[in-house]
Amino acid sequence: MNETHYDKLKAIIAVYLPQDVKVDDIQKDSHLMQELNINSSHLIDVVLDVEDAFDITIEDEELERMDTVAGALKIIEQKTQA
Q1: CA-CA distance, 38 to 70, in Å (whole number)?
Q2: Which of 8, 10, 13, 17 could serve as 21's disulfide partner, Cβ 3.0–4.6 Å?
Q3: For the residues of 3-71, what is the DSSP string, one character each?
Q4: Cα angle 73-74-76, degrees, rounded to a multiple of 5
């Protein structure tokens, strides 16, 4: 797993964390909505920011696999290697 991608993704997610969740709570196995309390509208913002930051396009059918930090990283790594 690419640590640079992980750090970049954490920075993107951190912007959308509610006040009761700290950046240190972001772990590779964290569920974005259930554990990090990111609401559905912010989840779309996370996806858009990921697309911009990594210069990739995330298809609709890939969105459900982006429910965890690890799932998002897997998609990012697949798309950036292509």
Answers
A1: 15
A2: 17
A3: HHHHHHHHHHHHHT--TTS-GGG--TT-BTTTTT---HHHHHHHHHHHHHHHT----GGGGGGGSBHHH
A4: 60
The amino acid at 6: Y
The model's pLDDT over 5-62, given as tens digits with 9 standing for 90+, comes to 999 999 999 999 999 999 999 999 999 999 999 999 999 999 999 999 999 999 999 9
C-beta of residue 36 within 8 angstroms of C-beta of residue 17: yes
Structure token digits, residue 63: 């969105």
Q: List Cα–Cα distances, 65 to 18, 22, 24, 78, in angstroms.
A: 22, 23, 23, 13
